[in-house]
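Z., the sequence and structure:
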Amino acid sequence: MNISKQVELTPAEARAIAEEGHFDKMANLPFAENRPTKETAQTLRDELLFQRATQTYLWALPLINTLGMKVGSEKVFGGPGRRGDGADDWLRQAL
């Protein structure tokens, strides 16, 4: 018994399935005598730089968030040393 269910795809979904993915293109770059061609080498360098830039951006997000919270809280509550009782000396030493 053969039971098959026909799935209806939107045109956008069909295009997405049919298109060759970015990593498929990277995996099928041309090599000559087991060495990358000049174009392949440049494409791989570009991809490496893109991946490094993306990773750097992702690693910087927590730092930028923390800095934004520090600046925002100092605008609202005042910066280090505003209390005058030495309660925030640890913060001044850490910065």
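The chain has one domain: 11-94. Strands lie at 31-32, 35-36.

Let me know what you think.
H.
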